[in-house]
């Protein structure tokens, strides 16, 4: 018999598969235990640290770009003196604590202003000689002022005349009529923006020293709440493991346990320093430890024992009713075929009756073979085919076996170890979801605010400038801001007089008053958002009749929705939507249609809770949405937060909404539920696969074989029986074909008057 054919392999595979599945609940469910701090809380704290690190890195990047932009656009004084050049650079750039202008070749200070810039441990000469256009910021420590961040920018100014002061130095440094300096400014390490009640954030350097500390609402920065071991452990963790982020547990006191997350600040945009700032963001808060959870060991043992009993019973039933009778039919049919070959010594095989099974198709085939044996011996003639009656057969037996296996698997798949929606998710996990949603809203607010601030700076730069100068400023601004889809300038009549970038989706038809950010329309395939800033013009332009209505009035930046999609998408936050004041989606981390409604009423009701009362600013909200109101069918952890309460984006009244399926969280209850469902699914899959295999290779051929055997016993000598399967059923079919040929020869001999061969007689005790 072939390896995968016959009745034995499916039954043996079913037994082995069910026994293997029975081991799974014992090993899988017994290993699920409630941790003191759930893994979901630790993972959420790690994600919060990653969000804070990304936000901190972005703020440092923005500040570094501002320093470089001001250094590239400032007009140096005619004297070219380093002191005057430094004053003009510091006046045009962002406010800093101190600045110094260095010789790029030697690193010698040429001019200084403000507080002393700490350059200890920083090889500025090597940085200047590296040739990198953008030098990444460096953290350092001032003995008098504390931690500082250094920002660098290359400055090129026209060289002074030879008869002025410093002529000798200028002659050495003159390159094509210009002089090169290295500007270094220092500023305080910006405090982190952390969200979540009772959470504290820290900026830690490579040595584990805390450079800045900030706290969210409800977190007091007192010595009692500090854990000195956490900063050092966070600084060493990345270097030791090579990971970019992680989580850890601190000490416990007063019935609370401190959980911390850390994340390395990625390299900003300095291509010469692959190690980045070398800073680590540490966030931590205290959570109540989880109570003793349910022990699933007893349930796993009972479930595994029940499946073992079912597997043994099903195997015994199939062996006794299907496998054993079929093997006996295979041997009996082969014996009758040998007896019908016509040889005298083989005719003795016909003397033994055929043992007929008592159930289903094997019994029908056995009774037909017994009738054929008697016809070969001449004891009887063809017997009529019994009328068809609805009797249970082997197929019904297979269905019953499948139902028995399903009776074990279906409760595990749909009923047992279900997590009640009322206590599906701990309060700490819900709070972390809200904190991360607030952080996502804060990223959108920072991005829109920075875009508007830079647009205002561009408006100041191009006011009254020639067209070529204004075009260059707009091009440089769009290159610095990937969020800008298009930049254009409107005159007082609303006509576009200058444009950089793509064609606007929906340009403003009228020049707006003031500065701000507003959506353009509430319909369409792609949402459009515009930031605008007024151009300051002189009184002569306003009173000039020829220029009135045609002079540039407003610079507009159309912000692309793709940039907003990237802002709200964060790993581990689930599905995130950005909604307008009418609760319609304008951006999302998943596929969406512009201005569609939120996917569930529960999310819409949650967003409504964040709406502010008249004169209010609104507040974030979070909840566990039950399976009837959550997207995806199961309970979800959802949160909503307003994007901006102040600033240029406050008038948008946007909200960030997030929803994470609770089953995706690493909670012991959901892990037990998932493993229980997996055990039931595996048992059902094994039962369906093996019983389906048995039905294909045994049950269906056996039903066909029973019909053929009954027709042959009833006198059908014309239908040729072709063996299709190379197994027990095929062997019986081949034997039936030999018996059909023998019966046909016997019938032809009887018609020709040839005497039938008498059946051999046997003495008692003789050989059959």
Q: Termini separation (Å)?
A: 28 Å
Structural class: alpha+beta
The residue-averaged pLDDT reads 82
List low-confidence stretches.
163-176, 267-275, 539-547, 754-768
Provide the descriptors you would attach to this structure in a database record:
768 residues, alpha+beta, Beta-Lactamase, 5-stranded antiparallel sheet, 16 helices
General description of the model:
By secondary structure, the chain is α+β, with helices and mostly antiparallel strands. It has 4 domains: 1-32 and 295-425 and 667-761, no CATH class; 56-188, Beta-Lactamase (2-Layer Sandwich); 193-287, Beta-Lactamase; 426-666, Beta-Lactamase (2-Layer Sandwich). The chain contains 16 helices and 20 strands. It has helices spanning 8-29, 39-73, 82-92, 124-129, 167-173, 229-241, 297-339, 360-377, 394-414, 427-462, 467-480, 539-543, 561-568, 601-610, 668-713, 728-751, and strands at 98-102, 109-114, 138-142, 146-158, 178-188, 200-204, 210-215, 245-253, 256-264, 280-287, 484-491, 496-501, 516-519, 529-534, 552-559, 575-579, 585-588, 621-625, 636-642, 655-661. The strands form 4 sheets. The chain has a 5-stranded antiparallel β-sheet. It has a 5-stranded antiparallel β-sheet with strand order 7-6-10-9-8. A hairpin with a 2-residue loop joins strand 8 and strand 9. The longest helix has 46 residues, at 668-713. The chain is elongated. Residues 163-176, 267-275, 539-547 and 754-768 have low confidence and may be disordered.
